[in-house]
Write a structure and sequence with these properties.
The protein is mainly alpha-helical. It has 19 helices and two strands. The protein has three domains: 95 residues, no CATH class; 219 residues, no CATH class; 64 residues, no CATH class.
C-alpha cells in the first residue's frame, strides 16, 4: 500500500493532477492505518489508473468495521477527490486524442456508461428531430427535453431519457413547454438540422429562448443548462449538454474558464468552439457503420468521459421502471392515464414489429383503449396474445 500511495510523486503530473494528488494525501492521512491493512497487488503506472485503483480499494477493500465514526467524512472526501481526478484525467484525453483513441475509450466505457442505452436514446431522438415540439405526444416531448416519467413505457422507451442532461428539476421550463411549445420551436428552428451552425444562428436561438422566460415568467432568468439539452438533441454533433453538476468539472477538464448557468456566450465561445478545435472532432466521417453512429453524435459523447462507477448503469430510470413491481388494480397502473393520441402512437410503434400477427393488428382499437386506461403496451398486447393467440 505504501508503494501505491506514494507512486504519483514519481509521475510527471500536470498542475491539476498534482492538486488532486495533494488533496487526496490530506484525506489519506486520516485513513492511513486502515489503508495500510489492505493488501495491494495492482500498481498502476499512470495517474488515471492510480485514481481508479485507490477508488476501488476505498469502495470495496477497506474494512469499514475498523473505521471510527469521524473517519467516514474524510473517506467520502477522498472518494470524491479521486472521482474528480478520474474525470479530469479522462477529459484531458479529450483535448489531445485522435479519433481512434476517442472511440476506443468510449467503447471501453460501454458497460459503465450505458452506451447501448444512450445510443438507443439518440436513435429515437433522430426520428423526432424533424417534428415540432408542439406536435409531439407528451412522452416524446419529454424524451427530447430530458425528463423521465412513469409514462415512459419500458417496452417502448428502452432507455433512460435523462442521459445527456436531466431537466426533471426545471419546473418552470416544463410548465412553459406545456403552455408555449410553439415558441421553443421558433427558437430551435434557428439551428439547422445539418451543416455548419454559425454564431449568428446560435445567437438567434438564444435570443428567442430567453424571450420565452422574459415574456411568461415573473423575472425568472433563462437557464443555460436546459438550453444546452435542447441544442444537443437538435444537433448532437455540434453541442454538448451540460448540467449544474458537471459544469465545473467540464470546464476544468477542458481547460476553460468556469462560467455560470446564465452565460450563453461562454458556453458557445469557450466550450463548444473548443470542442470543435480538437483532433477527434475534425475527423472525416468514417466509413465503418458503427463508428459513423458515434461520429454523428460526437460532441454530446464527451459526457461519457466523466466518472461513472458500477452502480450508474443500474440506476438508469429505464431499468428501475422496467424492474419495479407495479401497484396495480386489475393490471392497470394507478395514476397513469394517457391521452388517446399518446396511446395510439405508442401502440402503433409496438405493432410495427415483424413478429406481430394479423389478429393483433385487427385488435388495435382494443389495445389502444387498454393503454389509454393505464395498462402498459406490453401488458395490453400480452393479454390479447394470451386470450386469442
Amino acid at each position: 500500500m505504501r508503494k501505491l500511495l506514494t507512486s504519483p510523486a514519481k509521475l510527471s503530473l500536470s498542475d491539476s493532477e498534482n492538486n488532486i494528488y495533494q488533496t487526496a494525501l490530506k484525506y489519506i492521512a486520516d485513513l492511513s492505518l486502515n489503508l495500510m491493512a489492505v493488501k495491494v497487488t495492482n500498481h498502476p503506472e499512470d495517474f488515471l489508473g492510480w485514481c481508479k485503483e485507490l477508488h476501488r480499494i476505498c469502495k470495496h477493500d477497506l474494512n469499514m468495521d475498523l473505521l471510527d465514526e469521524k473517519q467516514f467524512a474524510p473517506l467520502k472526501k477522498l472518494q470524491d477527490t479521486l472521482e474528480l481526478g478520474i474525470s479530469l484525467t479522462q477529459l484531458k484525453m479529450v483535448r489531445i486524442a485522435p479519433w481512434p483513441i476517442f472511440t476506443s475509450i468510449i467503447k471501453e466505457q460501454e458497460a459503465l456508461q450505458s452506451l447501448n442505452e444512450r445510443l438507443a436514446l439518440m436513435n429515437y431522438i433522430a426520428q423526432l428531430r424533424t417534428q415540432p415540439l408542439e406536435q409531439m405526444i407528451e412522452e416524446d416531448r419529454l424524451v427530447f427535453t430530458g425528463k423521465h416519467t412513469v409514462k415512459h413505457d419500458p417496452s417502448i422507451f428502452q432507455f433512460d431519457v435523462e442521459w445527456f442532461g436531466s431537466t426533471k428539476g426545471a419546473k418552470t421550463f416544463h410548465h412553459l413547454l406545456q403552455t408555449h411549445p410553439q415558441e421553443f420551436d421558433l427558437a430551435l428552428n434557428h439551428i439547422p438540422l445539418e451543416g455548419t451552425v454559425t454564431k449568428v444562428q446560435y445567437q438567434a436561438f438564444v435570443k428567442d429562448f430567453k424571450t420565452i422566460f422574459t415574456d411568461h415568467t415573473d423575472g425568472e432568468k433563462a437557464p443555460l443548462v436546459v438550453a444546452t439539452r435542447l441544442l444537443a438533441m437538435r444537433r448532437p454533433d455540434v453541442f454538448i449538454a451540460i448540467t449544474n453538476n458537471n459544469l465545473s468539472v467540464l470546464c476544468q477538464g477542458l481547460n476553460i474558464a468556469k462560467f455560470n448557468n446564465q452565460n450563453f456566450d461562454s458556453y458557445y465561445q469557450d466550450m463548444v468552439l473548443s470542442l470543435h478545435s480538437f483532433h477527434w472532432y475534425n475527423q472525416a466521417a468514417p466509413t465503418d457503420e458503427e463508428e459513423l453512429k458515434l461520429w454523428n453524435i460526437r460532441a454530446i459523447l464527451v459526457d461519457i468521459f466523466l466518472f461513472a462507477d458500477e452502480s450508474q448503469a443500474q440506476n438508469s430510470n429505464f431499468i428501475k421502471l422496467r424492474d419495479k413491481p407495479k401497484k396495480t388494480t386489475l393490471g392497470v397502473v394507478k395514476g397513469m392515464k394517457r391521452s388517446k393520441e399518446s396511446a395510439e402512437m405508442l401502440v402503433d410503434k409496438a405493432l410495427e414489429g415483424d413478429d406481430i400477427p394479423e389478429y393483433l393488428l385487427d385488435m388495435r382499437s382494443t389495445i389502444v383503449n387498454s393503454v389509454k386506461d393505464g395498462k402498459t403496451v406490453e401488458q395490453a398486447i400480452g393479454l390479447m396474445r394470451t386470450i386469442f393467440g
